[in-house]
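Problem 12. The chain below contains 46 residues. Write out its predicted structure in token notation.
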Amino acid sequence: MLHEKIEQLRESEVLKPTEAIRMLTELLEQSTSDARESDAESEPPS
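Solution.
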């Protein structure tokens, strides 16, 4: 019984925030690479 409660707490308190951080990191990486690509497109050729 206690083991089940600990498992539920671990899932809600650790795994969900960890998943949210992973998703946010992916979004940041995508937006950073998108920004770099649009910067490269807007620069005049040398």
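Discussion. Residues 2-42 form the longest helix (41 residues). Students who got a different answer should revisit the alignment rule from Section 12.3.
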